[in-house]
Amino acid sequence: MKLIVLDPGHGGQDPGAVFQRLQEKVMNLDIAKRVRVYLEKEYEVKVMMTREGDSTVSLEARTNLANSVKADYFCSIHHNAGGGTGYESYRYNGSNEYSSKSKTFQEIVHREVINVVTGKYNRRDRGVKAANFHVLRETSMPSVLLEILFLDNTEDRALIQHETFKEDVSAAIGEGLAKALALPRKVTTNLYKVIAGSFKDRKNADARLSFLQEKGITAFIATTTLNGAPYFRVQAGAFKDRENAENLVAQIKKLGAEAFILVETTMTPAPIPPVDPTPPTPPAPPNVPKPTGLSIEGKSVLKAEELDTFVKGINPNAPMLGEYYIELGEAYNIRGDVAFAQAIHETNYFRFTGIVKPEQNNYAGIGATGGEVRGASFATPEEGVLAQIQHLYAYANRKPLPTTYPKVDPRFDLVTRGIAPRWIDLNGRWAVPGTQYGQLILKIYEKMLEETITVKQEELEKMRDVLVEVRRES
């Protein structure tokens, strides 16, 4: 999955261009957030921001972030001023290993944006340009800087503040970035869940579940949160065909119980035809056992302080959770260091840019399925880590849960025990569709190993061998 870093220019004590009461920093952040929403909705892509709010971020911090996460593209978003009009874009005017790609990508993005700015709104195309800007010079990947109209031009300013224009130009930037990086588009699919009652009291939910089971209808209880309060839903089925769901609703209602359909929309990447066929993998030498991938069970290689140091190098505001992952992982014989990489993947380096919020202490997205279903909440960070380790334990083996700690994972008993002994076995199980879920976790773990000077070189080589084998299997 490609990673794009969006850079809303200026911020905090640096307002950028100012005209009357209009501040560039505000407009830059607004457009960047809209671009992120568009990309994450329409394409299979990871998006990070150099700032999420009105904070002061140095130029060095912006490029350091992009370089540290090894982004595939860096896009800095600005608005102009100084007596002109129209849209323009910039790439680095020097020469480096990314110059050719930067120029190609810039032209693709520029073309998409200008089709809207000029074609729909009749503003001037100021052209594809080059300059020695820090964020273009110091990024270790292709990069572009966009200047979207002029704050001090009357006609430009009217568009800059118009909702339709902001949506149009954000979508155009998103489309340009997607075309430049050849991002796979997502396909929307619906899952029709039959809910046979939603209760505040667990006892009522248990009673409804028993009633349905007596009538020969398979069901289970799913916990959700509505308006900050926990609810217990009795789910009796999930169908891709709405007609099947409606038939089950009618059957349940005939029994005298309430039932309704909850539509869950998921996005899956559209298949991309291969451009160049991959040469066949040569057969393994005789009598050499095939690698089986990295197991979820086992002892951690990295130390607690190494986990915290790694994540804080990318997100200085990340919580100090390394000790919990190592200690609780050891208690359950679960790889706490790789579980930490899973938490990084789920929370975007503990930035919580998805539906799960920091106060939930839910670092693995347990029970979060989208929309209003934000998943489980845990009283403390330690309890949140414990729930994740217990959930991994349920997937990894069929042994009884150790009694050292209380069972806090609300979905432990819903897991088919032992179905995923390896991290890549979580694909399509922990995350749906999640066809590359385990691989993404292992890539983060590989990066953790590379950047931790105390790790043994042999562990790093083993990890790379595992990833090579994973790519062959996927």
What can you tell me about this protein's structure?
The protein is α/β, with parallel strands linked by helices and 474 residues long. It has 14 helices and 14 strands. It has a six-stranded mixed sheet with strand order 4-1-5-8-6-7, with helices on both faces. The longest helix is centred in the N-terminal third of the chain and has 19 residues, at 24-42. The two termini are 14 Å apart.
Number of helices: 14
> On the 0-100 scale, what is the average pLDDT?
88
Structural class determined from secondary elements: alpha/beta
Radius of gyration using CA atoms only: 25 Å
List keywords for this structure.
single chain, 474 residues, alpha/beta, six-stranded mixed beta sheet, four-stranded antiparallel beta sheet, 14 helices, 14 strands, 39% helix, globular
